[in-house]
Amino acid sequence: MHTVIAPPQFGDVVSLLAYVLGHPHLFIGSTTVMTSGLVAVVGVFSALAATGGPFAPPLARGSDRLLGWLAPRLALALAWFGIGSMILATEILIRFHDVFPDGTEMQFRSGIGHLLVAAIGILLLRPRLRGLTRRPWVEAHFWALAYLTIHVMLLTPPWFDFMFQGELVRGVAQGSLAGALAFNVYLWWRLGLTSSRLRPLRPLRPPTPR
Questions:
Q1: Distance between CA atoms of residues 144 and 80, nearest Å
Q2: Which residues, in sequence order, are CB contacts of 131 under 8 Å at separation 6+?
Q3: CB proximity list for 155: less than 8 A, separation 6 or greater
Q4: Pick the residue with more confidence: 166 or 208?
Q5: What count of Cα atoms within 13 Å lies in the side-chain half-sphere of residue 202?
Q6: What is the enclosing helix (H) or strand (E) of 86?
Q7: What are phi and psi of 127, to 5 degrees?
Q8: CB under 8 Å to 119, separation ≥6 — which residues?
Q9: Residues of 43-57 as b/e, b for ≥16 C-beta within 10 angstroms?
Q10: C-alpha pair distances (Å), 82 with each of 34, 165, 198, 203
């Protein structure tokens, strides 16, 4: 005997939308707003860099300089943001779908949306990511990890607490960031990036015979 799953009725959809609109903090957090805002800023500055007119040269130079500094840092933060959101949305769907199907499916769609926002941002930054060596990538990863740590520790996304699993998700997120930081420090040491800040010692001269 097969179980027939009835499609959701119009009233169910309306009730679900009303719940989301009445409790937006459960689905939209500061991390989403700030990161999506950064993507929008990148789009604006990319457009300004390509604009014409009498003020174009200084505007283009300033925009290119800003985007060149921001590109690797934001690209890595967006990669963490998109992949992490998708992993959490998938975990929520697999673990709690039988208990709360509508909410878990909405969280999964939200994860896909976060991944798309991250992909759009990285595509906008792609022209300024070409040709970067290992050094700027390693340095940029420190900035990206700092940005994400602020959001995990101080501005905890609301979906971390979905179905009361906040402690577990926060522990996994903090452990992942700590592991990434340790690996980045290893790369920093391995590539010898700190040696560029140290002045080489002068070799000792042999004593002059009298």
A1: 8
A2: none
A3: 29, 30, 31, 34
A4: 166
A5: 3
A6: helix 56-96
A7: -60, -25
A8: 82
A9: eebbebbeeeeeeee
A10: 13, 20, 37, 51
Q: Which domain holds residue 185?
A: 28-193
How many domains is the chain partitioned into structurally? 1
Which residues, in sequence order, are CB contacts of 16 under 8 Å at separation 6+? 102, 106
For residue range 110-143, list pLDDT tens digits in order: 888 888 888 988 998 888 898 888 999 999 999 9
Cα(167)–Cα(104) distance, rounded to whole angstroms? 18
Closest of 129, 144, 131, 127 to residue 183, by C-alpha:
144
pTM for the whole thing?
Answer: 0.71
Rounded to an integer, what distance in angstroms lies between the CA atom of residue 72 and that of residue 129? 6
Residue 205 falls inside a structural domain: no
Q: Which pLDDT tens digit goes with each residue over 178-193? A: 999 999 999 998 887 5
SS3 154: coil
199 within domain boundaries:
no
Rounded CA-CA distance 80/58 in Å is 33
Q: For residues 177 and 152, is the Cβ–Cβ distance under 8 A?
A: yes
Asked if 155 contacts 31 with a C-beta cutoff of 8 angstroms, the reply is yes
Structure tokens given for 11: 């009233």
- Calculate ∠ Cα 130-132-136, nearest 5°: 140
Would 14 be classed as within a structural domain? no
